[in-house]
Amino acid sequence: MTLMRNGTLRASNLRDARYGTIFLITGHGNHLKAAVYSTFGLNDCPLDKWHSLDAERLAKEFRVAAVYLSGPRFCTFDQGIAYMVGETLSFEGLEARLVSEVYIPPSMDLASHEAGWYYSAWKVRRDIQFHFEAGRPIHELLTPDEKTYVMHSYSHRVDDSLTGESLLTLGSRLTLPDGWHYRVRVPDRDVIVRPGVGQTDVLHDELENTYIQLVSA
Q1: pLDDT at 201
Q2: pTM value?
Q3: 171 in helix, strand or coil?
Q4: Is omega for the bond preceding 72 within 30 degrees of 0, making it cis?
Q5: Beta strand pairing call for 128-132 and 79-82
Q6: 106 near 33, Cβ under 8 Å?
């Protein structure tokens, strides 16, 4: 993991690396957004520290409307480049740095596993490039309107038994929208998912694995 002088963070050998993300949510009603902090590049999200975090207590400490704890998560990509990272904060002793800003659609209830926001794209403002090496599996969601979303992390928030290997058969567990398909493929060339212009579309499945839209260069 290397943090360059220009603020660019570069890392390799990341597949299955553990991290956590913390959403500091501000606003009210239909106008919610979140500053997203990640332990990525700072620590491996120690489980004892992660599980001791209390969202309500953190919300009071940071004077925000709510806090959402997303993790532990694990990388499905091999290399990553974050072109711009922000401040580092301590969350009850767990360090995490600002990596993106998210606009939260009104339909999303982050507190409920029964929420209807799964498979709905939401806008993320970030400058991160994901690099998937040739010869290694990548996991994708294909939509009826010919969009492709590539999984960049799997989550233990809902099911802590998930592994990189178990993702090969994940499709049999997902309740996909009509016309959607889950695909595992092994590319013969590297796949690079570059940051979108301004904002990037991201979505989750019901196990809270995260996918980013693959946009042709």
Answers
A1: 87
A2: 0.89
A3: helix
A4: yes
A5: antiparallel
A6: no
Q: How do the domains of the chain map onto residue ranges?
A: 2-213
Strand 122-125 versus strand 200-204 pairing type: antiparallel
> Mean pLDDT, to the nearest integer, of 149-170?
96
Query: DSSP assignment of 142-157, as one string?
Result: E-TTS-EEEEEEEESS
Residue 196 burial (10 A CB sphere; 0-12, 13-18, 19+): middle
Q: Return the residue matching tokens 């212009």.
A: 197
Three-class SS of 45-78: CCHHHHHHCCHHHHHHHHCCCEEEEEEEEEECCC
Q: How far apart are CA 77 and CA 27, in angstroms?
A: 33
Which run of H or E residues covers position 24? strand 18-28
- Tokens 């499905």 locate to 76
Q: How many CB atoms lie within 10 A of CB 161?
A: 6
Q: Is 166 helix (H, G, I), strand (E, B) or coil?
A: helix
User: CB within 8 A of 3, min separation 6: which ones?
Assistant: 9, 41, 85
Lowest mean pLDDT segment, chosen from 30-34, 99-103, 189-193, 197-201: 197-201
For residue 82, the number of C-alpha atoms closer than 13 Å in the C-beta half-sphere is 19
CB within 8 Å of 44: residues ≥ 6 apart? 17, 18, 19
CA distances to 74, 114, 119, 197 from 171, rounded to whole Å, are 18, 19, 14, 30
CB 23 within 8 A of CB 97: no
